[in-house]
């Protein structure tokens, strides 16, 4: 790459490396990790894979570990507004200077080895964690698991939050294949925690083949929801806890996975007080996030597959409003658009769909046609997400709400608009 001095310069050059390119495999990143001295982690590692629920599970695990006075690095993707969102140490985003230093090292040692955007940034995250001497790195798998860049490092505890149909071009079109890909982040002699209540058989068989110990929700640990409280229970303990502030039944499942994974990593149970402090304080941007814009209630969620759309639709149905629910929506072309719309259309009274200026984005004309096929009406098409959002708000009356969903690339611009108006 050309010599760069600022984070913006680095990010522009990384974006020229085709940030939407997906090229699974561990050989490239493993070679560069060795050259950069990053192949051996100086910390314990928790990896989190899953079709849905990764973000909140990562946040819960990091929060629980922080209550034990541990230094915790967190790596997630993608970001909404600022790249620094992806790499956090002890609750604070790493600085631009740290990222520039990391990028410079990776670029220098890789020589002519081609890296994808995600591989490059994953190496940068590991460099930052090494420099900061974190005790534990909690890392979100980007896509699948077995061949994802995060899997280039051995985890001490691995988690699979859920197994659904998504990214079929890379992971396969059935849950057995996808379960195999995700469970392959496990390591021999270590624990794999599964939060899917009805996982495909491949999760257990893959754990067995690897030599990992599988802890399955509903069998080895469970949660019981009781209105504004819940109980985490396994063979050794029963913990009575307040409900998570993240809305939706899935928050209890993800919190349970986090409690189980943390116990496996530390070798002891956290107190009810410590767990309560985490689940009552953690919320995640863009995941069932409630806001308000020009006196209109806004719900933002990155639901981008059929399972997530099903959960979002159930959430909306359980919380009806007096007026209309207007959606701001778009997604990537590799998604099962028909399945998403089948799940959502009964919960939506009007659609504002947006063009996304990305190679993988679905064409708005095709999206409008898909909406028409499920009987969605009215459907308005806009050139940008921001314009679609502004028009959805302008169309709203007292008692209406706006739901923004479908992709990080849809939720991100709306979060930026809310931040610009100091509403977040």
Features:
424 residues; alpha/beta; UDP-N-acetylmuramoyl-L-alanine:D-glutamate ligase; Protein-Tyrosine Phosphatase, Chain A; eight-stranded mixed beta sheet; six-stranded mixed beta sheet; 17 strands; 39% helix; globular
Task: Tell me what you see in this structure.
The chain is of the alpha/beta class. The protein folds into two domains: 7-279, Mur-like, catalytic domain (UDP-N-acetylmuramoyl-L-alanine:D-glutamate ligase, 3-Layer(aba) Sandwich), CATH 3.40.1190.10; 289-420, Protein-Tyrosine Phosphatase, Chain A, CATH 3.90.190. It has helices at 7-15, 27-35, 54-66, 96-110, 117-132, 168-171, 175-183, 201-210, 250-266, 272-279, 306-318, 337-344, 364-373, 385-395, 408-420; strands at residues 44-49, 72-75, 87-89, 92-93, 136-140, 157-160, 191-194, 213-216, 221-226, 229-234, 238-242, 289-293, 296-301, 325-329, 350-354, 379-382, 401-405. The strands form three sheets. It has an eight-stranded mixed β-sheet with strand order 4-3-2-5-1-6-7-8, with helices on both faces. Strand 7, helix 8 and strand 8 form a beta-alpha-beta unit. It is globular and about 55 Å long. The two termini are 36 Å apart. The model has no long low-confidence stretch (mean pLDDT 92).
């Amino acid at each position: 790459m050309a010599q760069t001095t600022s984070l913006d310069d680095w990010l522009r050059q990384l974006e020229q490396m085709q940030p939407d390119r997906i090229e699974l495999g561990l050989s490239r990143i493993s070679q560069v990790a060795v050259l950069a001295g990053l192949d051996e982690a100086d910390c314990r590692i928790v990896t989190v894979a899953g079709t849905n629920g990764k973000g909140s599970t990562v946040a819960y695990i990091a929060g629980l570990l922080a209550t034990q006075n541990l230094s915790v690095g967190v790596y997630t993707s993608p970001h909404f507004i600022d790249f620094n969102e992806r790499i956090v140490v002890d609750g604070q985003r790493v600085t631009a200077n740290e990222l520039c230093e990391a990028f410079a090292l990776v670029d220098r040692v890789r020589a002519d080895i081609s890296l994808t955007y995600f591989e490059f940034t994953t190496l940068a995250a590991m460099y930052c964690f090494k420099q900061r001497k974190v005790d534990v790195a909690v890392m979100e798998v980007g896509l699948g698991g077995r061949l994802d860049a995060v899997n280039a490092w051995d985890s001490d505890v691995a988690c699979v939050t859920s197994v659904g149909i998504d990214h079929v071009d890379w992971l396969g079109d059935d849950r057995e294949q996808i379960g195999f890909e995700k469970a392959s982040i496990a390591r021999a002699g270590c624990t794999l925690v599964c939060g899917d209540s009805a996982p495909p058989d491949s999760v257990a068989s893959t754990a067995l083949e690897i030599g990992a110990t599988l802890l399955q929700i509903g069998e080895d640990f469970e949660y019981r929801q009781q209105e504004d409280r819940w109980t985490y229970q396994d063979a050794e303990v029963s913990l009575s806890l307040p409900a998570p502030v993240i809305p939706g039944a899935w928050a209890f499942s993800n919190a349970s996975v986090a409690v189980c994974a943390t116990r496996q990593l530390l070798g002891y149970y956290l107190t009810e007080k410590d767990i309560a402090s985490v689940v009552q304080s953690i919320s995640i941007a863009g995941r069932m996030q409630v806001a308000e814009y020009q006196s209109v209630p806004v719900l933002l969620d990155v639901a981008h597959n059929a399972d997530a759309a099903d959960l979002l639709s159930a959430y909306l149905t359980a919380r009806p409003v007096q007026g209309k629910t207007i959606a701001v929506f778009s997604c990537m072309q590799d998604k099962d658009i028909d399945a998403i719309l089948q799940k959502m259309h009964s919960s939506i009274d009007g659609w504002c769909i947006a063009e996304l200026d990305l190679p993988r984005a679905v064409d708005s004309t095709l999206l409008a046609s898909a909406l028409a096929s499920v009987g969605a009406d009215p459907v308005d098409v806009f050139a940008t997400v921001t314009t679609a959002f502004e028009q959805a708000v302008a169309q709203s009356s007292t008692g209406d709400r706006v739901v923004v969903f479908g992709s990080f690339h849809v939720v991100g611009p709306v979060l930026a608009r809310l931040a610009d108006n100091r509403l977040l």
